[in-house]
Amino acid sequence: MTHAMGIGAPSLYAAFQSKEALYAEALRHYAVTNEGYVWAGFHAAGTARDAVRSFLEDSAAALTGCVADIPRGCMVTLSSVGSEGHADLGELARSARAVTFERLSTRLDRAVAEGEIPTSTDLHALARFVQTVQNGMSILARDGASRADLEAVADVAMAGWDVRTAGPGDGGG
């Protein structure tokens, strides 16, 4: 990125006071301007299954740069920030990732309340599964996977969803 802008990394970091502040601003900017690309369909979906499918498919598009204003790899870089030597930045990134789990959990709780998903379903594990699939898609996108590759992963995940959320009389659960 700095090469394309014709500046060095130290100059970029200095403009934000530090590397950590740059990442914090990038996370904030993403949340304000781009998270709708991944979450709008999720929030609008009528069922938890449709919400999760939308989340994974929209993630496939966003992670591969197939939607406006999200450079390929931007979400990947932001989602993979750890705490190696930067505890505050690591906590900020963990908090941002926790939003995904919270949104998934809330939607799954609603699905149980509405009778869409059996009460015997391990909602914590199901939310973690969906979150893990999306995180894995991020890694694959960073390594150059196409949107079609990531959508195929989403298809397999949804087949797992169907087995996991089937009622006792449906042959699953």
Automatic annotation (TrEMBL):
Q: Which residues form the signal peptide?
A: none
- List the InterPro entries hit by this protein, alphabetically: Tet_transcr_reg_TetR-rel_C_sf
Going by the UniProt record, its keywords in alphabetical order are:
Transcription, Transcription regulation
Query: Which top-rank group of organisms is this from?
Result: Bacteria
Q: What is this protein called?
A: AcrR family transcriptional regulator
